[in-house]
Write a structure and sequence with these properties.
Two copies of one chain form a homodimer. Chain A has 332 residues and is of the alpha/beta class. Helices cover 45% and strands 15% of the residues of chain A. In chain A, strand 3, helix 7 (135-142) and strand 4 (147-150) form a beta-alpha-beta unit. In chain A, helix 1 (5-12) packs across helix 2 and helix 6 (106-118) runs parallel beside helix 7 (135-142). Strand 2 (97-102) of chain A pairs antiparallel with strand 2 of chain B. The structure holds a DNA duplex (16 and 16 nucleotides).
DNA sequence: GTGAAAGCGCTAACAC
DNA sequence: GTGTTAGCGCTTTCAC
């Protein structure tokens, strides 16, 4: 059928092992035979069968990427695609493939992992969300399988992870708003089970405290990552009081807030998004947002994982990716 | 190291081949031994090594997914993620994995394909864009490798593909607008090299013709898939004349148009997007758009591909996925 | 109904 | 420097 190492060997009048050595560029092969073998490979249009190689090497040069399920708008968020782009490009540069799977439910997640890992399909796993007491993390640790998570895990000293400094990023947003004179600041975040939400909320609280502003629980909402839920939450806040500003944990959420603000003609209320998606810039008014460098998150996560797999000594088990506040018209 | 078929065999006091037969549920194995083997597998927590299986079976149960490069906002478009979700969920239901790669340039595309195919990593390929004289399609055909494309290819009788009826979908949009009294209708599309753009333009032209409206080339723009480019194009159209309506080939483009319209206080101009992304619904005014059923595109593409790989007789080499016009406030 | 043996395409230890 | 050989973990033909 397709041409194998044996065919090349016959053609070049050498043994299969010699061909293999030429492929891996083994220095002990004479230049003459190298030439001959390479010529044979070219003539026969030979391409190594990576499956066979994987079997002997016990390594597939493939990374598994677990994406969250379809129960929220989370995946529709462009920042996921940016992360994927980062992962894909770094992986490619290091000769790795990416296998991806959606996970529909929490229970399923460990099953899927167990398949991927147990079947020896992947050399490592990239997790894209982190929860408290994350089952997937627990499973991978128990099985001692290389993995990296995007987001800060509970056991941040003994896990490979990348994340933004979400506490600080949100602290800066809120602090900036307060310095500009805003006092009554609402917070609308995604589901509380996600670490991101939790940490951004922490940053919010920290900033209030640092500026001696009392926390008002009626101004704090944590729902799911949808435009609609955010819209509803904003209306509740507005009914309670007219805030000076509303901060959110995602642009999609900010879009929902903006809709509510516009509907209620509240053009004095400041608004801040997160993740700096393409559209935040083009909204009217354009929305101030925090650029989280999603592509970089993907790149460094993959780097951490590949170093781990290839046992390349690394100085750190994590990277904090810098964020950048992009001020636009929605904050005065 | 990890537990293999041999370990199970020893434990269950049978030969490896028997274990293999139990795994594949071979009917000639007695229920008693089946039981025994299954028990052994459970006790040892055995999971088949898929790499080894792939080597013997000459099938990896993995599909390669090629995504467009980073030179446009195309990939940031939520509809891509929806397609991926469709692909992933159907593939999963049939026991297939998905390997994905970004392609940065056209030249690179064939290289990447040749790697994927030649290395025998994937059983089939999913192409997500189609161009005229598509090199990738040519390569896959030449190598006789199973593939499917999302979008209608040149040789639509001898290629597996899924697509919307883009000509008709756009025809209906424009026809509807004309029936409502709009006459001067602008068209802003993505890059002309993409078949999608071409076909939607065709539908636009067809509708004008059917209604005896003369084509005005000053109202037709084909740029790239970006908000910004669309915004600029709209301004040029507005400078030329105030249109009754503007149709676009993508919501992202429509967003750019809307920004230009709002800036110029042109609230009488109708606007239609495409792909019905989440945000079109929440824009102010909400944007009429065409739902292309992206997830379904992914599902049926994968179905076509897997049937082909497994040599399941199929009645058709393509599916036309229905579209649905979602009327909102942007069209009067 | 079950076992023995060969082979998928590659790599690597061991010879010479 | 190069060849021989065994083996990665599985499936499958051929025996019995």
């Amino acid at each position: 059928m397709s041409v194998t190492i044996k065919d090349v060997a016959v053609r070049a009048n050498v043994s299969p092992s010699t061909v293999s050595r030429v492929i891996s560029n083994n220095p002990r092969i004479s230049d003459a035979t190298k030439e001959r073998v390479r010529a044979a490979m070219a003539e026969l249009n030979y391409q190594p069968n990576l499956i066979a190689r994987s079997l002997t090497n016990k390594s597939t040069k493939t990374l598994g990427l677990l994406l969250p399920g379809s129960n929220s708008d989370l995946l529709l968020n462009p920042f996921f695609v940016q992360i994927m782009r980062g992962i894909s490009s770094y992986a490619k540069s290091k000769g790795y493939y990416i296998l991806f799977t959606h996970v529909d439910s929490d229970e399923e997640e460990v099953d899927v992992l167990s398949n991927l890992v147990g079947s020896q399909w992947v050399d490592g796993i990239i997790l894209t969300t982190v929860k408290d007491n994350d089952k997937s993390i627990a499973y991978l640790k128990a099985n001692n399988h290389p993995f990296v998570v995007i987001g800060r895990p509970d056991d941040d000293m003994h896990t490979y992870w990348v994340d933004n400094d979400n506490i600080n990023a949100m602290f800066n947003v809120v602090d900036m708003l307060i310095k500009k004179g805003n006092k009554k600041i609402g917070f609308i975040g995604g589901a509380h089970e996600f670490k991101v939400t939790k940490n951004r909320l922490l940053g919010y609280l920290k900033a209030l405290k640092a500026n001696n502003i009392k926390v008002d629980l009626n101004l704090i909402y944590e729902k799911d990552y949808s435009e609609e839920a955010a819209y509803e939450a904003s209306k509740e806040i507005i009914n309670y009081l007219i805030p000076d500003a509303i901060v959110t944990t995602d642009d999609l959420i900010a879009f929902g807030v903006q809709r509510a603000l516009i509907e209620n003609k509240l053009d004095t209320v400041s608004l801040v998004g997160f993740n700096n998606t393409v559209l935040s810039r083009y909204k009217v008014p354009s929305i101030t947002s925090v650029d989280i460098n999603a592509e970089k998150l993907g790149i460094f996560a993959t780097k951490l994982l590949i170093n781990q797999i290839e046992k390349i000594p690394i100085l750190t088990n994590s990277y904090i990716i810098n964020t950048k506040l992009i001020e636009r018209d929605s904050t005065k």
